[in-house]
Structure formats: C-alpha cells, structure tokens
Amino acid sequence: MNTFTSTADDLGAPREFPWIADGLAYGGDYSPEQWPEEVWPEDVALMREAGVNTVNLGVFSWGLLEVADGVFEWGWLDRIMDLLHEGGVGVNLATPTAAPPIWLLQAHPEITTVDAMGVRVSQGGRLAWSPSSATFRRYALRVVRAMAERYGSHPALRLWHVSNELGNENARSYDDETGAAFQRWLAERHGSVEALNQAWGSAFWGHHYTAFEQVQPPRFASTGHNPGLLLDFERFTSDALLGYYEAERAVLRDVTPDIPITTNFMVMNEPGVHDYARWAKAVDVVANDHYTIGADPHRAGELAFSADRTRGIAAGESWLLIEHSTAAVNWQGVNRAKGPGEMRRDTLAHVARGADGAMFFQWRASTAGSEQFHSSIVPHAGADSTIFRDAAALGSDLVSLARVRGSRVERAKVAILYDQLSAAALRSGRNPSNDVTSTREPIAMHRALTDAGVAVDVLPSDAALDAYAVVLVPTLFLAPDGLAERLDAFVAGGGHLLVGYSSGIVDETNRVIPGGYPGAFRETLGIRSDEHFPQFAETVLRLDSGATAGRWVERVEARDAEVLVRFDGGDFHGWPAVTVRRVGSGSARYLATSLDDAGLAQLLAEVVADAGVAPVVVRDRGLDAVRRVGDGASYLFLINQSDRPCTAEAGGVDLLTGVTHTGRVTVEPGAVVVLEEAR
Amino acid sequence: MNTFTSTADDLGAPREFPWIADGLAYGGDYSPEQWPEEVWPEDVALMREAGVNTVNLGVFSWGLLEVADGVFEWGWLDRIMDLLHEGGVGVNLATPTAAPPIWLLQAHPEITTVDAMGVRVSQGGRLAWSPSSATFRRYALRVVRAMAERYGSHPALRLWHVSNELGNENARSYDDETGAAFQRWLAERHGSVEALNQAWGSAFWGHHYTAFEQVQPPRFASTGHNPGLLLDFERFTSDALLGYYEAERAVLRDVTPDIPITTNFMVMNEPGVHDYARWAKAVDVVANDHYTIGADPHRAGELAFSADRTRGIAAGESWLLIEHSTAAVNWQGVNRAKGPGEMRRDTLAHVARGADGAMFFQWRASTAGSEQFHSSIVPHAGADSTIFRDAAALGSDLVSLARVRGSRVERAKVAILYDQLSAAALRSGRNPSNDVTSTREPIAMHRALTDAGVAVDVLPSDAALDAYAVVLVPTLFLAPDGLAERLDAFVAGGGHLLVGYSSGIVDETNRVIPGGYPGAFRETLGIRSDEHFPQFAETVLRLDSGATAGRWVERVEARDAEVLVRFDGGDFHGWPAVTVRRVGSGSARYLATSLDDAGLAQLLAEVVADAGVAPVVVRDRGLDAVRRVGDGASYLFLINQSDRPCTAEAGGVDLLTGVTHTGRVTVEPGAVVVLEEAR
Amino acid sequence: MNTFTSTADDLGAPREFPWIADGLAYGGDYSPEQWPEEVWPEDVALMREAGVNTVNLGVFSWGLLEVADGVFEWGWLDRIMDLLHEGGVGVNLATPTAAPPIWLLQAHPEITTVDAMGVRVSQGGRLAWSPSSATFRRYALRVVRAMAERYGSHPALRLWHVSNELGNENARSYDDETGAAFQRWLAERHGSVEALNQAWGSAFWGHHYTAFEQVQPPRFASTGHNPGLLLDFERFTSDALLGYYEAERAVLRDVTPDIPITTNFMVMNEPGVHDYARWAKAVDVVANDHYTIGADPHRAGELAFSADRTRGIAAGESWLLIEHSTAAVNWQGVNRAKGPGEMRRDTLAHVARGADGAMFFQWRASTAGSEQFHSSIVPHAGADSTIFRDAAALGSDLVSLARVRGSRVERAKVAILYDQLSAAALRSGRNPSNDVTSTREPIAMHRALTDAGVAVDVLPSDAALDAYAVVLVPTLFLAPDGLAERLDAFVAGGGHLLVGYSSGIVDETNRVIPGGYPGAFRETLGIRSDEHFPQFAETVLRLDSGATAGRWVERVEARDAEVLVRFDGGDFHGWPAVTVRRVGSGSARYLATSLDDAGLAQLLAEVVADAGVAPVVVRDRGLDAVRRVGDGASYLFLINQSDRPCTAEAGGVDLLTGVTHTGRVTVEPGAVVVLEEAR
C-alpha cells in the first residue's frame, strides 16, 4: 500500500499516512510569487515534462499572504494550488514562517535574535526571529492556523513543511527574553541551582550561582566560557527551536489531523545546534536538505555518509531528500557546478540509501534576490538547457524506479555511532587541539568501508546494537551515560568494537571523566592513556605497520590489551597506536591516532574480517553498492563513482534500462544501474 | 592661452578658467600648521629650489581655523597664504571639512557615520561624518563660506579643493538619518513602492514593501541582502556624497564665481562607492589621487590604467594628478619604497596620459600623527636627502615639459569600457565566484595592449564609440540600458568588439537577464550559455590554441558565431573558449574564460590586427609610448619600464635633454624621453 | 640566612623578609574548592610525595568566599590552610579579586571593561573588571582586608599573591569612567592641554584640544589614531592597573606588615600593556608566569630570554617562577605536549637564570571549567602517571639544589636593552612595516649569544651600563631621553655598542626624531639614513660577507663610520649593511638589516671578540651554560638542549647526582648537570 507509518511523539500510537506521491517524490521548491502569473501554466507544463510530481510551495511567502497585520491575501495561492492540482502535482505546503514580513519586523524589532556582542539582527535576511520570542510565536501561529484552515482540505495538499531549516539563521540568541527561557530550561534540567553548580563545576573561577536568575547566555566575555554552560546552551537552543516546531505542529494537527507534518533538517550542517536524533522523533517523516561542497574531493563520500546518517536518525525508515541542488549553489567562495552525470548520481545515491523522493532547491532560478545565482531545474537559460534536459531524464529514471518506494535499505552489519551532542561538546570549550573535529574520522571510516563495498549504518549512540557485528566509535568526545556498559555487552556478545581517539573524554555535563583516558571506555578497551600529544597538521608519523599517522598521539598503556600497531621512531617510538582487547569471540580495538587512508582501510578490513562481514556484493572498487529490500523484492543500486568501467557479481533486471543482467553486470564510468534482483 | 574649459554641470555654459600654474602644476599637500612658523620661510625657499609652483593648503585644518563654535582664527592661514604668494607658489585651497574639529564632534556626536552593526564612529580619525547629516552640513557650509569670503580674492588662490577624498572614510552610513535620506532617494528613483518591489524582486523571501518608510539601509542581517537593495544603497551613497560636494560647491560659486572648483577622486579605490563618471561632470577639472601597491608586480600597468581611466571620465580633457607618493606610503602591510627612477617614471606616466600637473602627498613629512611614516618631498631627513634631490630634479623636468600643458592625449583606436556601477553590482550579491572581480580582466587587457604599444582609452560605457575601431567589454557585469544596441551598431558599422565572461549578466536593477548568458549581449555575439562553471584558483585548463586558462568556464553554444578556440581535454573538452560573429567588416568576439598573459596578448593581437590598429610607434617591448597632441605640436612620451635599453622608431627634440633624435631613439633602462615631434 | 631583601617603593627603606620556602620553592596553583573535601588529604599527601613545599591558594575563589554581598564563608579556606600547614606546605595566598563573583557582576555590570566598539564585557570569564572602576575597587578592597585580617597571622602564610595576571583580560577599557581617569592622568602628565597638543602633534588632521575633557580613549574611529595618544593610552593603562595593585598592597601592608607581597607578571606577553620595569619596583619579589609556545622551534631560547629579562627587571635579584606548565596548555590552536625531559629542562633553565622557585599552573587538573584541558602536576589520570612521576623526581632535584637558593646569577658582560614602552610605541601607529616587531631581533641576538656560550643580561634601558663590555640595542624604536648620551659615554669609556635597525626612531612622545635616521643615535653611530626600504617577508638579499638578510634595508650614509658589510647586487648594491664607528678602544656598530642566523652569530662573535668577552665556560654548542654565585660557592648549570652528548671544561660536584667531575663533564642529550664549583 502506498502509505508510510509515522511514530511521531505527539501521536498516541503509530499511524499510517498516504505517501506524498505515486512512487518516488520528485520536484523542487516552487516560488510562483516571484513570477508573473502568466508564467505559471508554463511552469506546470514543464513540471509534467520533467516528471515532477511534488513541489514545496509557500516557503518564505508570509509577506505576500499577510500583507499587513491581520490582512490576508490568499488569492494567488488559491490559484496556484488549483493549477498544480489540475496538473497532477502534489504540494508540500510550507508554513510561511521562515521569513517574517517587513511590517512585522518594523512593528516588533524585538522578535529578532541578538548576537553575543549584543547586536540585534535587522531586516533583510530570512528566519532571524528568536524561537523564544513570545510575540513572534503569537503572530506565527496565527498565520499557520489561517493557512491550515484555508488549505487543509485542498486536494493538492500532501504534507506540511513547517517553516524552513529552523535554526539555520536563528540559532543562538543572546537577548534577555532568551536568557529567561534558558534559565527556565536550566531549572527544569538541573532541578536545583546546586545541581547546576555541580554539573558545570562552577567552583572554577568562583563562578558559583545562587539562583537560576543569575545565569546568562554565553555573551561576549573576557575569555572562554564554562564548557558545561556552553553545552547546555547548545542543548537549550536545540530544544527552543524544537519547541517552536512543536507549537506549529500542534496547530496543524489540531486543524488538519490527517495531513502528515515535517520540517527540513540539515544533518550535515556543522556547527549546527540541532540534536536531530531527537528532532527525528517529532516529525512524521524525516526530510533532509543536503548540499555538497564543491571543493571537497570526497564529496560523494560525504553525501553517502549524510544519507546513511539521515536514515540512522529515521530509525531505518525511508525518508525524503527534500532539498539538494541540480548544479552550483551560490554561497561557497567559488561555486563549482556539477560534472557530467553528477546530479543523477547524487540523486540516486540518496535514493539508494533510503530516500523515497528527491527534490531540488529550486524549480525555477530566481532573477532577483540573494539566491539569484543558485541553480535550479529551470535555469536562467530556460527549459532549452542541459540542466532541464538532464532533470527531465532523471524524472523519467525515477518513474522507472517507482516500485522501490517503500522498500528499506538492508540493515548493515557495521554501525558507526555519531551524536550531534558529542559534536556540540567538542566545540564547547578549549580542547587539546582545534584540529580534532567530530566529523573527520566518522566520514573517513565510512568512506573506507564504502570503498570496500561494505554497508554501514550511521546511528545515534542510543540505538540498539544487537544486530550489528561491528561497531565503530570515532571521536565520540562525549560519552552518554550507559554507553560504556552497552558496548561492554556488545563485545561480550561477540561483537567487534573499534573506538577512535578523543572518544569518551567527557560525560554528559562536558566534564572530563578522570582516571586516565578514554575515561568512559578504558575498561572496555583494556587500555589507559595518561597524556594527550596533539600533533601539528604538517606532522607525519610512521607506524610499524607501514602506515603513516598524524594529528594525534597519546601515551597508551595496554593494561588488558594486545598492541597491534606501534609508532616507529621519534619521541613516540614503541608507543601503541592500535590495540585490541579480545573477549571471547568479540574484540575491542582502540585507535590512538589519525591514520592515512590506506592505513585506515587496512585496519577496518581487519575488523570486518574478524567479524566475518561480507561486502554488499563482490564488485570493483569505485562502484558504490547499496541494497534496498521490499516486499518480496530487492533492489541493488550500483553507482559508478570512478572514471573507468566497473563490474559487479550480480544479476537481475536493470530498472533504468529494462535490460536483464545475469551473474555479472558492468557499469560504465559515472553511470548507474539499479537491479531488481531475483531473490 | 593658459586656460582650461570647464563644463561643470552647474555652469550655464562651458566656461574658461585660468590654469592653476604656469605650465605643469607641481607640488604637494602642505600642512604648515604642523610646524613652527619659523620653518615656513625655509619651506617656501625649498619649494622654489624644487620647482614647486602649487600646493594644496588647508586640508584638515578646520580645528585650527575654527577653534570653537563660531570662533575663527585666520591669522596663521593669512600669513602663509601671503608668504606662498610672495614665493610664487599658487594655492589649491582646501575647504577644511575633511576633519571636523574635536569640539564639533563632542557637541554633535550624531554627525558621524554608523556601521552596519550599529556602532557609531568616534573621534580620532578623519572624515567620519555622514553626508546625510543636516547638522554637519550646517557647520561645514558656515566654515566654507567664511573661508571663501576671506580668501576668495587672495592672489595666491588658484583652485578650490573641496574637502578631501570624500567617501574614503565616510561612505555607507547605516544610521536613521541616513536611512530617511535613502528612503527619499528611493522614492525619487522608483516613483512608487510597487516599482521598487518590482525592481528589487522583493517577492523573494516575501520582502514585500508597502511604504518607502519600511526600507532600511542594509544593516547587520541574518544572511545576504537583496542585490537590488545593495546596489541602490551604493548608488544612493555615491549621490549623497556628491550632493554634499555640490552643497559646498554652491557656496563657493556664490562667493567666488571666478575660482574653479574640484575635489580629489580616488578612481582605483576598490571597493569604492563613487560613480566617478558622474562626479566628473560636477568638477571644473578632474583631479585624482593615485597610490601604487608595492606588492603588485604590475603596478606600472595599474598606474597606466588608472591614468587612462581618469582621462576617460574627464572625457578626454586634461586633468590633474593631485596626490601620489614620492616613495613609500604607511598604510600597506609592508610599505615598499620606490626603486631608482620610479618616482620620476610614475609622475611622467601620469603626465603622458593627460595630467597637466603632478602633486605629492605631501610636502614635508609629519613627525606626529597617524601618517608620520608617509613619504614626502622633504623627508624626515630634510632637504639633504635623495628624495628631495630627486624631487627637485623632477621639478626641473616638469619645467622643461611646460609646453605640454594644455595638449591632449591622442585619441586611441581601442576603448575598454569600465563602469563603477558594474563593479558595484558585482559586489552586491552572492555571485558564482568570489574570484571574479571587476578590475582583473580590464587591467590585464589594458596591460597586454600597452605592452604591444597600442594606445587604449578607458571609457564609461555611455561614451560615444564612433571613433573607435576596437571596443573591449571585460567583466561588465551590469549591462546599462541601451548598451547592447549601441554595440550592435558599432559592429554593424565595421567595429571590432570583444566581450569577456561575466559581462551583461544583470540589468540596471541588478536582476539577472534571463534566457541564456550573457543576457544582454548574446544576440550581438551570436552565442548563448546555459550554465556557468567557475573554477578554483589553482585550476589550469588547456585550450587548443596552446594557451592556458582558468577561473571561469561556461557552456557556450555558438548559435550564430564561429568557434576560434576550444577547451582541450577534461570535462570541458571541445567547449568554445573564444567565438566570433562576423558582421560585414565588423566582428564580435566572446571570451568565455580567463586567459594566461600570452594567450590574452595573442587574442588581442588578432583583434587589433583585424581592425588594422597600429601601435603608437614602432618600438621595443618594455617601452611605454603615449602621444599628446597640442596646437601644431605633438609630444611622444617614451618611458622605459624595463631593465634593458629600448629603441623606438621616432624622432624629434627630447624636451628633457634638448637632444635631437632622428628616426630612432634609444631609451636607457628606467629612463624617459619626451620627444617634441616634427609634424 | 633564609631571607630576601625587598626594595619595594612603598617601604621607607630596604627590608628583609623570610624566604617563602626552605630552599627553592616548588609547587603550583591549588584549587581545593574544585574538589570534594575528602580529596584534600590525598592532595597534601601527594604534595609531600612530590616535594611540593608551596602552593598558590585562593586565586579566583572570591565567589566561594563572599557568597553574597558582605556574606563571608571562610570555613573551607580555614580548613585547607590548616591542612596544608600540617602537611608542611607553605601558602602564597591570593587575594581573590581576579574573578568577581556572579552576584557582584549582576549588581554592578558597570564594573567591567568596554571594548573600543562600545561593547561591555559580560560575565563568564575572569578579570574583566576595569581598574578605573571605583565601585569595583570598593568591593575588592573590602574582601582583601577581610582576608588579610583573617589569615594574616596564619602560620602557613608565606606571601601575598595579589589577584592574578593583572591586565591579562582587563587591559584597555574604553568606557567613560576610564575616559575620565585617562583625562586626569593626562592632565598630570602634560600639565597643560597645550603641552599635550605639542606632544601629540595634534595639529595633524586639526585634532587640536582645548580642554583635557575633550580627550577620549582611542575608540572605534574611521582610521588610525594619533600615535602619541595611543602610546599615552598604553602608559595610562599600565599605570591604572599598577595603581589598582598598589591599592590592594596598601591594605595588605596595613594589616600584615610582615608578609611580603607580589603579583604574577607575564613579561613575554605581547602585546602586553605593562611597563614591567616600573611594576618590578612595586613588589617585594618579582614573580613571573611563563608559557612556551609549542609551535616555536626556538622555544628554549625564548624561555631563556624571558628568564634573563625577568632577572633584568628584578635588578639582578633572585625572583620566582610562579607559573609555568608541566605539559600542554589549552589555549593554543594545537596544544603541543612537552617532550622527554622538557619539563625538567624548562624548570632548571629558569632556576639557572635566577629563579628561587618554580611553580606550575596547576596542582590538579580541573575536570570542569574552561581550563579543563590545561596540564597539571596531578593530571586527569591521577598520580599514577608519567607527569606526576616526573614532577616528583623534579621535586627531588630541587631539594638537591636547595643551597642554590639566594645565590645570584653572575653578572654578564653583555647586555641587551629591552623596553616594554618601546614595544608599545612600535605598535602605536602605522609604521613602515608590520613585519618589524619589538621582540624578533632581541630574542635572535640573545639566542645567538647563548648558543655561543656567552652570558647575557636583558635590561631596561635605564639600567646602569658601566659594568658591561657590550651593549646591544635591537629594535629599540623609542629612544628614552638621555639614552643617547649614556650610550655615547659607554662607547667613550671603551664599551662596544651594536644598534639594530628601527631603533631610536621616535622620542618619548612617539614623534619621529627628524634629521635622518636613526634620529636618536646617528651621532653615536656616525651614520645617517635618509630612507627606509622595508622588504617583503619572502625577499632574500645577499651581503658581501656571504650572509643573507631581509625584512629591512635603509639607505645608510657612513659619515663618521667604517662600512663593514655591504649589500651585494640588486637595487641596494654597495649600500652599507653593517657599519662601525671606532672611538678609542670602544666601538659603535649599526646593523641596518635583519640577518640570517649564521650572519647574526658571526657579527655578534666579532663584537664579543672586540670586547674580549669569554663564554661562561668552554663547552660544546647545544649546552646552555649559566653560573649562579652565592656566598663562597658558585653553581654552574649545564643544560643539554641538543640531541647529542655535550661536554664542558668544568668540574665540581653535580648536585643532582652527587657525582664529582674533574676538569671536564659530559652531559647526555636532554640532561642537566649542576656543578657546585670549587672556587
């Protein structure tokens, strides 16, 4: 059945909603308000030509819907909703709260965020409002309710798209109203001010609080703020934004209980403030925005990590790629366009990893406004253009893949644990090295495994680990309560664990766990370090395995572990770089440095071999292979990310061409094959 | 006759004024107020020794002339004016408004500019006042009137020098008084708020305005502002400064109708806010400040471009180099001193290109104040110094060149179009690549032609093109209304056009011209691009001409044009890099990338050859050759910018040495020859 | 006798105080308030194990001692003072004013500093209060008096440690209260506003003042401020902080006249505002904080310079290293840990150069707060750690060296003059090159001499020079009144002087001394430059000595001097790089550029040879050799900073091992020998 199940935390029980499209959703953000009305029929005709079945509509349109305080002009939106419906295009209708109208900003300048220096944001951008502003919320919920009442039963309506990228331009406000909300949040979290003092270690520098009212957001100070305060402010900010989302959701549920609700995440936005694993529980379907960084030579790998992570927070359910780009964006220094076939590969790589739809920002390129040079499906050159033709061909591809909709990505045997909260902790304080980031090692490990054809799930650290053979914990700076015990059980149960450096250093209050590093995991790993030796970026160290390493060294004592690899030469000669503690058939490895690509691939190959994990399929390196499994069918996505032909030992019908392959399939450079496999 | 003609836009008709000096003006900014009065006679004696006949006097002296509100102390200025007159030194008298007195800043702190974050500028610098401040203007015009009344008939007075580098430290204020002035300016420009909404495309992000009073300057916002607003704010700021200038001018005209008026421009100051082509119409004689950048290996070429551009906005009339430096400045990171002969070459290069005078900032080096390490004619070491001796020798050279005064630079056959407004548009928004600048390609093309001995005029795009054989349009991002039609006519008339990438992309409202790039010029060029491919700085691409290219690629379709050069290899293999559309004897080339120096020289050589344009004179590369033409005489400037002797096929009397050359002249490395040619 | 002599400027006469420890002081900052009270006995036991005899206690503890306005809770401090005393650990008790309590910051936000943009510092850091705040001072002196009254006679109390690193986070406030204090300071310094105008050359830009009330701190301005104002603001700020220290001192002297008083300096903190040579006269014993920069390959040399400079401002008396680190700090980008033996070498290098104690920040590593990753004696891993074991071994070493306490470093024959005020002048204005710093050449010269085994004193320029054979004046931008005459006398007396470029350029008002560079010293040196030629960082120039040079060239005329080295080739060919004016047996050299290491070593070798200065001892390069001399004994410190064994021609008993060496001693790589020499 063409439905999906929501387990959103405001529903009493899991509930089915119709899926938003027939088959995979395809389309983009559509801003008809930027164009004369005579262009609209051409838009709808082109959408049909391109296979577009879904648009995100109304994002940023508040100022054109409520043209003065309480004065609504729905006419244009009525007309385009009808036109789209007639054209067979479904609508994810955005509540328009991502851009307050000019009249509201002028009547209530106090709704915007204030930076740490005390400067209030002025009009001219988007978002900018503080999630803690009661005045803003009053105005916003009024327009949301009015919109829900007007369009709740419109036949084109498929999904509510709450606001847009909440927090992208309005995270972290330092004004007094936010400060008061922060104080209330702290009171709820810590219970007593003494508990807060204890959690933050506020005896440091004598910053003892005697009332919650004394706490302020981390404003411009003479030196670094308390890491506990910083981390709690990040948590609070995520919660304040989420609370705002929930307020919109409550209005929508009230008026339109049968329409599913989401908001677009940006899971790879660093340093983002959102604890998206928590947010995922608040939406009916996880929707993500993803943009590649042109200067990143490994952008395909970063995309794959992003998609696996999105699926991870969606608890393995299918999800929606609600924004990506056809070509160049406009906010990087030099905005690289995409190469031949790259738009198609990017799209299908998301679908392979569980997306049940792929939408672009944007349908038609703006000629004005600050995104006038952002790419689109219909570029400035119009439909007579390579991009439009490619997008239409892609639309046709997605129609061919319609039956994939609703299938699930085969669960992997290898999991990488990644927590946004740990990333927040790592940046909330003055740590041994600014060169240690929360994403480098997770993405590097993910890429090494993907290159080896091994499937990986990227999971929040509170996910169940039972079904996995290998668990990787790279740079998980903050160790959540109970994780060590769960990892112990995993290893004791025969699982294979690899923990990377700078993991398990602090607890949930961002305090260092004393007694030797990595405080949380040293028993699990059978090792103990007494000192960190961060390395300068240019330093290259040799290991006795033949690999090289850098960025990080520590003085590891292998108390209850075997040393697998040691540093070779220099001040660190003989120190352990990789250790293993074997527990029955399980194992717990520690990686005390940052390896070069080949060294990391070799290490992971050993772990995977220990665990007996096989690749998704036997295939040439360069061929990205992912399998989705549905009712009685499985779909093997083979995406050739290399510049030479690659083969895989697989067979079935290529849904994109209809050609049947038996036993072996060859994929041309840059091309994609999707096999419906005989099972 | 020793006069010049002003066509300033406040005069009913063109009018003659006496030129400010006998022959070429020579001297510098003179600040006697910084020195004990006993130094003054030595100053005047040294001026005579150095051939100085003109000084800029009184710049920044307000605080010493009006020592308290309405209390004037003219004594010292009276005395030095008399002393200079007795010494035969003419005075460009500055209205002292470039530095408000401390008492005024304290009585009216609200006169200063406010930055985009809302921080008001404090005392301690210069300028800093907002051109939209009514209070400042009231005080300023009072002192200007008082000064005009006192010195209007002083025999030393030659020229009014209004304030100083208007906008250099007081462009772009974001305060409310400026905001109100901006709103009035917008109302005048756009007529109705609906027209403004249309021009800016304010439907984007729902930034719909319902009253001009809702518009604010582009203050600190959550993301980039609307490009139309940004561009209009640049236009407004230029106009606000110009309006201020005009207010001073009105006072001066009223009191001293027979004294010409100017203000010093900084035409190469990027990102400058001034639309100097418009400003040029407001002064009686164009005066420019020019400083080379020590770290620029092509600084001589940049200087030549600056001088040709200054002449261009002066509509070919002679102009005044009113500030440059004898040696190092003090505001660059490492302030490079000039090399042997460089001060002389720099000076004579300006004169060659139409300057009828050359003045230094400054006469005598300050020992105190924030410019204490800026070079001068009389350095800290005093007159017994290389710099003073070189400056005196240069003064003598300029006396030898006196008859050049009033002649005009021979009109070139090649024009480069350059608009400040286009530069403003390019920086007003988030564009495909931050590496695309408005000056790189214009200066590179100018240098390539200068190296080839071909004369170039640098013109505002609204200049008449009839007299030119070649017109170059490099990176003219904003296409003014009507330019495409004028270029069509130029080509149809047998002209040779070369348009460079990133030209004609937006219209006068900074909106993209849709339908394919370059929107404004694609018909003229017979080509159409549907996508831009900005390249990272380090990328080098090969062309089938043997040249290399970078920074920019686009997917060009040669619809009505021949492909001359193609990309060779890689993703862009076979794509057009240079095209030509031939129209009768005319041609229209498009350059879709940024060429290496040799490639650019080759391309321009072909264009010039097509057009039959000859060099100024047959000469060795390295010899900069410019011709000025006067009544019955012509003057060929030959400046050897190389480190080896260079010869030119030219003859006449070298005005600098009196030596007669017949048929061929050799110029020593770094030396200059100025031939009065037999015509 | 175990005492030391204070000559603090508030004592009527020199006076003896007991030294703070038996033998050398050893320990660290101790923050028991961060730990549960049950940890304290373990702390004291570990201190005994580590040889710790002294702690800095109570720094930052205000908020835990005065928990609300006027409400004191002394209990915990009483208990730990008693416990430390019982454990034989002496206390340097800090007045807790370095971190105002939260309640005080909330009741009086106006006590904090305001930056140049007008932004007031919020709570969350440390220091942050303005030294000119009367309100802060009232609260601070109250808690200081209360603490002095409570603990003044406690047997553990050894020394008052006033606040902490005064000025580190609260130099330069731009608020109005500070402005008024600045005006009063200026009135006192200049006497009349006309004298101020003259000193600053305020005629520049017409910044004429008619009342002291018109002067403001150098707030956000449109361009660079007047260098005279900037320098006076630096002087004022140093004095304001010093005045605050003196206010605390007055309270302490009043209550506890028998307890010596100090505050911890940071003499290498650039750009620091403190004129520490003046501050040194205000303390009973000079105490310094020193941290090496991990990325500096010459950090051992920088440490040696710091220690010699600390002794220099202490007028040769012994001093206290009151903070350094056992290992990594947490405020550099990548916080390098120390290598094998480095903590020991660093510590003993300070002791060798006159420190009578060495203390670490900190005793036990914090688990919370913004310094949670700063190293300590007891690291996160606890006492079972390399760092603790090394620190305990070092404690044992210091016990072995106890008899060194009270001895003095042998006076050197070579002095480097270094003034903080000159450094302040160099950064207070827009100078020829941002690449010229006040520390590069002094440290380079110091290192070249140290490498050659030659002892160096680093002195304020007003120190007596009679006892020296060689005086070096590198980059002494500001020439204090009378210094030229004193250097003349030094040379006339047979001394050997070397002045480096960018010295003697400005006078005490930061005005350029005209007449040719270096204005203050050109007669002394017999040379005169008329122009500076700063060089870009990447430029390498050849000299005819074979050395290379860079960064600086000037056009030197050797009027009364011999040219020793010239530039070779290029624009500067033949120009003097090194000159000498010989006066009887004395000499005055000028170095007009920045030499490479070998060239500088060669030049200094010549100067030292001329002066007949011998190394401390004949030894291999790489062996740092310093001699301390006490009553009837001398101690030769030999620190091997190299990676190979080094020998010295010296003998005596190695106090660290008890081994007797006769005639020659070999020191292993990285090791230290301290010989008690037979005299």
Overview in brief:
With 679 residues, chain A is α/β, with parallel strands linked by helices. Chain A has 17 helices and 33 strands. In chain A, strand 10, helix 9 and strand 11 (287-289) form a beta-alpha-beta unit.
What does this protein structure show overall?
3 copies of one chain form a homotrimer. Chain A is 29% helix and 21% strand. With 679 residues, the first copy, chain A, is α/β, with parallel strands linked by helices. Among the domains of chain A are: 198 residues, Rossmann fold; 55 residues, Golgi alpha-mannosidase II (Immunoglobulin-like), CATH 2.60.40. Chain A has a 9-stranded parallel β-sheet with strand order 9-8-7-4-3-13-12-11-10, with helices on one face. Chain A has a 7-stranded mixed β-sheet with strand order 16-15-17-18-25-24-23, sandwiched between helices. In chain A, strands 14-27-28-33-30-31 form a 6-stranded antiparallel β-sheet, with helices on one face. In chain A, helix 6 packs across helix 8, helix 10 crosses helix 14 and helix 14 crosses helix 17. The longest helix of chain A is centred in the middle third of the chain and has 29 residues. Chain A is globular and about 75 Å long. The first copy, chain A, starts with a strand and ends with a strand. The relative contact order of chain A is 0.09. The mean pLDDT of chain A is 97. Chains A and B meet through helix 2 and helix 4 of A and helix 8 and strand 19 of B.
